[in-house]
Amino acid sequence: MQLLITIIQIGVGILLVLLGGAKLLGMQQMKASFAHFGYPQWLRLVVGGVELVGGLLLLGGVAVPLTIFFGAILLAIPLLGAMMSHMRLREAAGLFPLLLLVLVAVLAWQRPLGLQIMMLPQQAEMVETLLPSETVVAHPFGEFLEGVQVAPDGSIIYTNLLNMDFSQPSFAEVLASAHSEIVRVTPDGSSMLLATTPTGIVAAVPEWTEDGLYFSVAGSDETRGLWWLNGAGEFEQLAAIPDGVTLNGIVQGPNGRFYIADSALGVIWRADAATGTVERWIENSQLAPRTFVGLFPGANGIEFWNGDFYVAVPDRGTIVRVPLLADDTAGEPIIHASGISGDDFAIDSSGVLYVTTHPFNSVVKILPDGTLSKIAGEAEGVVGSTDAVLSPDEPALYVVGDGGIFEMREDGEAKLVKLTLK
Description:
By secondary structure, the protein is α+β, with helices and mostly antiparallel strands. The chain has helices at 2-25, 28-36, 41-60, 67-88, 95-110, 113-118, 171-176; strands at 127-128, 133-139, 144-150, 156-162, 179-185, 191-196, 202-209, 212-218, 225-229, 235-240, 247-252, 258-262, 267-271, 278-283, 302-305, 308-313, 318-323, 334-338, 344-347, 353-356, 363-366, 372-376, 385-390, 396-401, 414-420. The strands form six sheets. It has a five-stranded mixed beta sheet, with no helix packed on it. A four-stranded antiparallel beta sheet has the order 2-25-24-23, with no helix packed on it. A hairpin with a 2-residue loop joins β7 and β8. The longest helix is centred in the first third of the chain and has 24 residues, at 2-25. The protein is elongated.
């Protein structure tokens, strides 16, 4: 399907460049055509210019995909005019611009990246109270630090995603060649590799419990679900979620079951590690990415505090609070904070959130009343920030990031950074 769309893109682009050029060069056939419809020749030059620019935008989209949408929308204008001109004279030749109009509409629908970038959620204005920072671990560009937790002995556990091929057209194909490393940093600063997942199994976001380390795993229909790193250092699938799409944040609820955010569906799955049973705990539009214009994930990071689940929804620029009702069902989602595209976050005992913003390269503090303040940015080593965890033993926040992998910062490093809280 993707190859067919690319062929249409290139074919229509070349054709419209040629047609636009012919109009601008004043070829006799083009002059006669505009005279036939009773249009002035200056309009031929305008239409030719629009067709030439639109065609070039389609062709340029081979290298810069965000231009495709704008080229398709621009070309729809002269094509619609040509079709209506032929229809006015009841000419069958109007079918040709109609066909081209359908094709550019398909391109706009299938390649909306330009529109999606225009419609990215805006970050709210906020004060800056930047914290002291230090880099604990740095990985080379191309590695992707995704999740972080603190073990009972004070060690920092983080996941490192490797061999993710972002050139692939679907998320499943991105993960097909990838795997994860689970790394431990001891209190004395030494690092050790705890485990490596098999290829195609990406253990992204960890959750530490008294029983050990649990993960949400995004992968194929067979591997997608809740996994556990057992005492022998082996990965074991405890609950399969084949109906899920993009499993992301995970947290253990007060009832011992695990709640896993699905960034594509706007669903929070509830999984029982003991029985392997899984259910859709809640599905709500406030947890889903926006239709068509959505570029960022829907429900992403998830934490539990004071009887409620808090969920970061980066594509909507919100933190959503979902009450846990007495019968273990979900209450109606409530927007806790807005103007913040959070990836994941930590939450302290007083309900203060420390939110990582991934492509916005920052950590934002959210007070219980919704007040926002930026506490770290690029100067503090926070680039492509993906997750954060509070230390139980010291006033510190540990943050992991990808080093700007989506911005193609080839000099960037994927870091584990320590922020000293004031």
